[in-house]
Each structure stands twice: as C-alpha cells, then as structure tokens.
Write a structure and sequence with these properties.
Blueprint (H helix, E strand, L loop, with lengths): L1 H29 L3 E3 L4 H21 L8 H22 L7 E3 L17 H16 L3 H29 L2 H5 L11
Antiparallel strand pairs: 1-2
Helix pairs in contact: 1-2, 2-5, 3-4, 4-5
Pfam families: ICMT (PF04140)
Keywords: Membrane, Transmembrane, Transmembrane helix
Membrane topology: Multi-pass membrane protein
Length: 184
C-alpha cells in the first residue's frame, strides 16, 4: 500500500512539474528567451519515465518491502522535496526542465541558489537513490544513478556554457559548488 502512495506522489509531482515547465516556457519565449541544447532533452525525459517504470516494477513484481531503515530514508526524502520546491519557487517563471534562457538577464541568486549552482539536479540525484532504497529496490537505485550521472555529464556543461555565454552566470557562480554547499 505504501508503495502505491509513494508512486502516486512521484507521478503527480512529475506531471505537475511538466505543467509548470510548459507554462514557464511559454512565458519565457514570449519575453524573448530561447531554448538551447535540445538534443539531449528526450534522453532526460526517457530516463525519468524509465526510472518510474523500473522503480514500480522492481518493487511490485519482485515484492520488495519497505526498508528497515525507512525512518532514516523518509526524512531525507522529505528534505529533498523541500529543497526541490524551494528551488522551483526561487526561480519562479524562469524554472524549467529544458535549457531556456533569456539573453542579457541576471542569474537568480536566491533560495538554494545562494549555496549551489544546481540544487534541482542534486535533488534529482538523491531521489533516484533514496526512493528505490526506501523499498529495497537496489537495481533501480544503482542503474538509474549511473544513467543519471552520464546524462548530467552532458546536461550540466551544456547548461553552464549557455548561461556563461548569455548571462552573468560566470561572475555570480564562480565560487559556488555545483552540488554540495562549500564551507565558509
């Protein structure tokens, strides 16, 4: 039963994010923004769809149960979700699942972006590990962590190159870490 609740949450979250991204994309493009590095986006969508399918199948078909460490994993998952929503809220209409940038604008430096270059990618990486571990779905956790790392090695440099070219990204984020906040 718990798996169905968690899976429904993940599915609802992903669908609602696509609606938000679509709305933001329309607004940004109406303001003169352009989409960049489109070629890898279908692979990112595919990764997320296959992750959800793999997670669901591994847990339901192989009768995986809630981890005995659920009391540690669940608070971590909740924390990652708070960071996700904080990141989306902080970027407002500029948040998107695609690389859409408005040339000449300033990079947003609020919320979790005060501490990290890519808080949303950090959250996704943690989710890909934590949700499967919550139900002992080790194959999904390992396989999709590896696939996500491969895709992020393409996505993040592409995004940073665009941001450095058309915004003040380089000067703003020169001292910030990509994924883990630096100690002062």
């Amino acid at each position: 039963m718990m798996m169905y609740v968690v899976f429904a949450f993940l599915l609802a979250q992903r669908v609602s994010e696509l609606f938000i991204a679509n709305r933001n994309e329309k607004w940004m493009k109406a303001q003169g923004a352009r989409e960049y590095a489109k070629e890898h986006y279908p692979f990112i969508v595919g990764l997320h769809v296959l992750f959800l399918l793999s997670f669901f199948i591994e847990v339901t078909v192989f009768h995986k149960t809630l981890s005995p460490l659920w009391f540690l994993l669940l608070p971590l998952i909740i924390f990652t979700q708070l960071i996700r929503y904080w990141a989306i809220y902080s970027l407002g209409p500029y948040w998107n699942t695609k690389i859409i940038v408005m040339p000449g604008t300033n990079v947003i430096l609020k919320g979790p972006y005060k501490f990290l270059k890519h808080p949303n990618y950090t959250v996704v990486a943690l989710e890909i590990i934590l949700f499967p571990l919550l139900f002992n779905a080790y194959l999904t956790a390992v396989m999709f962590t590896v696939l996500n790392v491969i895709l992020m090695k393409i996505r993040i440099p592409a995004e940073e190159k665009v941001l450095e070219t058309v915004t003040d990204y380089r000067s703003i984020f020169a001292t910030k870490s990509r994924f883990i906040p630096k100690r002062k």
